[in-house]
Amino acid sequence: MNTGPSGRDGPRGRVADVTGVPGPLELVASPHLKAPDSTPRIMWTVVLTLLPVVAWAIWNFGPSAALVIGAAVIGALGAERVLTGSPDPIRDGSAAITGLLLGLTLPASLPIWMAFLGGVVSIALGKWIFGGLGQNVFNPALLGRAFLQAAFPAALTTWPLHTGAALPDGGTMAWAALRGPNFALPLMGGRMDAITGATPLGLSKFEGVTTPVTDMFMGTINGSIGETSALLILLGGAYLVYRGYLDWRIPVSVLLAVAILSSALHALRPDTLPGAPFMLASGGLMLGAVYMATDMVTSPVTPRGAWIYGFGIGALVVIIRAWSGLPEGVMYAILLMNALVPFIDRATQPRVFGTGRATEGAT
Amino acid sequence: MTSWLTGLFGGGFRHGVHPPDHKDATAALPIRRLPFPDELVLPLSQHAGAPAQCLVKPGDRVERGDTIGAAQGYVSVPIHATASGKVMAVEPWPHPTGRWMEAVRIAVDPHSAQIPRPRLVPRWEGLDPDGVRDAVKSAGVVGLGGAAFPTHVKLKAPPGTAIELLLVNGAECEPYLTSDHRVMVEHPERVHFGIRIMMQCLGVDRTVVGVENNKPDAIQRLRETVPDDLDIEVMGLTVKYPQGAEKMLIHAATGREVPSGKLPAHAGTVVQNVGSIAAIAEVFETGWPLIERIVTVSGPGIARPMNLIVPVGTKARDVLDFCGGLTDDATEVLFGGPMMGAPQPDLDVPVLKGTSGVTVLTDSERKPERSYPCISCGRCLDACPVFLNPSRLGMLAQAGRWDDMSDMHLGDCMVCGSCSWVCPSNIPLSQMFSLAKSQMRREREARERHERLLAEEADRSLAADALEADRSGAGRPDVSADLSPDVSDEQPSEVGA
Question: How far apart, in whole angstroms, are the C-alpha atoms of residue A246 and residue A259?
Answer without folding.
Answer: 21
